[in-house]
Design a protein that fits this description.
Number of helices: 5
Shape: elongated
Number of domains: 3
Distance between the termini: 44 Å
Order of helices and strands: HHEEEEHHH
Strand order of the largest sheet: 2-1-3-4
């Protein structure tokens, strides 16, 4: 109803133009806009007051042919560009998630398969940890042995070879413990990764069941 009233008002405004002005259009369309006070301003070419405003194109018969929106302001352009960027980023995120979901469903046969693979990955890390702990124990024993030998030289200069041996043992101990910490973090990462895979896999399976 509001649209019909608007069209009727526009037609009435066009028909209210002086007959001479309509005749001068030579059958061309009339361009109308509302000025700052809301009054219609019309002409066979766009009146200067209509620059930067929305306007209508009206046929010589008084029917509205089209509406032309006002040019966007800088703020509106910025909002439009930001919305378009947000839309593109959201679409990229959805596409990435869809690919990840497809890869997840192709990787695992079932939730039980995820459990099996997790245990296998943890077992491999645990085997590495056992070897690292064994080497750490050897190094600690070597350090105790070197300390005992150095105790013998308490009142004398410690031989350079013994000092170098202690330095080498300490250096390897530091490296060994660094690798141990890295392997422990790897175990935590495995738990987190498989937990996330399990949760998402269950969601996809449940969604598939609902669609069926």
């Amino acid at each position: 109803m509001a649209l019909l009233r608007s069209i009727e008002w526009l037609v009435a405004a066009a028909l209210a133009l002086p007959l001479a002005a309509v005749a001068q259009t030579g059958g061309r369309s009339i361009l109308c806009c509302d000025d700052a006070n809301g009054r219609p301003v019309c002409g066979d070419v766009l009146p200067p007051v209509c620059y930067g405003r929305a306007y209508r194109e009206i046929s010589p018969q008084g029917t509205v042919r089209r509406h032309v929106a006002a040019p966007l302001t800088r703020q509106e352009i910025a909002r439009r560009d930001a919305e378009e960027q947000r839309r593109k980023e959201e679409e990229a995120r959805r596409l990435k998630q869809r690919r990840l979901d497809e890869a997840l469903l192709e990787t695992y046969k079932s939730l039980e398969d995820i459990d099996v693979r997790q245990e296998r990955a943890l077992a491999e890390v645990e085997r590495s940890l056992e070897g690292l702990r064994a080497r750490e124990a050897e190094l600690l024993a070597q350090r105790t042995e070197v300390e005992a030998e150095m105790e013998f030289y308490r009142e004398r200069d410690v031989p350079r070879a013994l000092v170098n041996r202690m330095r080498d043992v300490e250096s390897e101990l530091v490296s060994q413990r660094s690798v141990l910490e890295a392997k422990k973090r790897e175990k935590d990462a495995i738990h987190a990764r498989f937990a996330a895979d399990r949760r998402r896999y269950a969601e996809l399976i449940a969604a598939g069941d609902e669609r069926r």
